[in-house]
Amino acid sequence: SPPKGKDGVIVHIPVIIAERTDAHVRPGSLTLLVSGLRICNSKSQLLHWFDKRDVDDVRVQTPYEICVRQRFIGKPDICYRLLSAKMPEAIPFLEIQFSKKIQFS
Predict the structure, then answer these.
(1) pLDDT tens column, 33-54
(2) Element of type H or E holding 89
(3) In CATH, what number is assigned to the domain containing residue 71?
(4) Predicted confidence (pLDDT) per residue in 40-99, tens digit
(5) Phi, psi of 43 (to 5 degrees)
(6) Model pTM?
(7) Which domain holds residue 60?
């Protein structure tokens, strides 16, 4: 397994990001940390931080595509669709981090 950095980085991969069912996609990165998931744009600016406790489900659509969702009562869910050729490297770590929340389609 890769060495963990001081900030608890487990895995960091380039991704294509889509929000909810938005057709607009953009390049960025997914960083899986001990404490949660960081989604950044191509300039490494934070788009969204999912605290590990706040993730309601991680759906693995294909070995290369996942959906991460946080549900809210009375307002829309936050949902990101992430695609990456390197996703198969991240999925085993997602399974460990989100064992009760991960679903395979």
Answers:
(1) 999 999 999 999 999 999 999 9
(2) helix 87-97
(3) 2.30.29.30
(4) 999 999 999 999 999 999 999 999 999 999 999 999 999 999 999 999 999 999 999 999
(5) -95, 15
(6) 0.87
(7) 9-104
